[in-house]
Every structure is written in C-alpha cells, then in structure tokens.
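#random but structural
TW: two for the price of one
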Amino acid sequence: MAKFIYDAALDCMVEKNTRAPMVDPDEWEPTVPRLTLDIQGYQSPMTGEWIGDRRTERNHMQEHDVIPAAELRKLRKLKNKRFIEKHGLHSLAE
C-alpha cells in the first residue's frame, strides 16, 4: 500500500517513494485516507470499568495482561524453546 506525505514545494500530498502527486491535477478527484471508526463503549467484564474508546481499551488490556477474544484465532504455537523460556510463554508452546 502506498504511503503519502505532504510536500510543501508542490503544496500537495505525494507518494513517499516516487513523489508522484496523490491527485492528478488535470483530473481532480479527491482521494481521502481511510478512517477507522472508534469502538462502541462497553463495561469491562473484569473490573466493571467503562471502556469508551480504543485507547482506554488498549491500556485496560495491557494493565490486566489480557488480549481480545478475536486475537485468539491469530495466535500461533511457538516452537523456539529458548525464546519460550526467555519470555515465559509456556502456554503458547507446541
């Protein structure tokens, strides 16, 4: 996926590597970055605390050392015994 930065000399957004303008000046069609909507608020099942945005959710999960249930499908079993020992990840070992 292309990454864009602002070029002050051209006064427009340009592709980071090629410096090609994000929008062709002759054929002006606005291109907009994709936005991710915030989460719906919910009450933490662990503490009862209200979680109203992603930052609060991220901090809460980090504080209580938990991960979202959706992430469980993405977890892989670890094979490197030295890595497992070093980081205490015995529950993720094959």
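TW: number two ↓
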Amino acid sequence: MQSALGNRASGSSDSTDPQHRELTKAVGQLQEFVQSMKRNLEFSIDSDSGQIVIKVIDSETDRVIRQIPPEEVLHFARSLNERQGSLIRMKA
C-alpha cells in the first residue's frame, strides 16, 4: 500500500490514528487473501484525477487482470478536471 492512499483515506499521515490503523489492517488482510489466490493488489492514486486506483495483478505473469476504476473512467475524470479548470479560468 502506498502511503498516499493512507493519507487520503484517513485525512492524516499519523499512523497512530485509529482509522489509519484499521485501514492498514484491512488492506493487509485483503492482500493476504488475494495473494493466496496467486494475485497481487496494487493501490495507488492517479496523479491527474486524484482517484484511488486498485489493480489486481496475476503474480505469475505480472499481467493486470482488473483495474478499478477502469482506465476509461480515469480518462473521463481527467477530461472533466481539465474542462473545469478552463471554465474557471474563463470566468476569472
């Protein structure tokens, strides 16, 4: 799990925060379960849209099996962010 996810999910980077500890514990348990099925989970934050991204990866081939949200949704979110930014610049 990347630390950026913990910061975003709990609103704090303090590892003593109960929400942060619970999130870290839950992610660890989920990763253990997924790895037992020969799968890995990768958590990240898309830098352009700010969305949390979860990838399910085949541990033997390193192939992405599934991504949540899909790349198409991230592309749409990025487009909305760009258009919103240009609209704000036009109003100012």
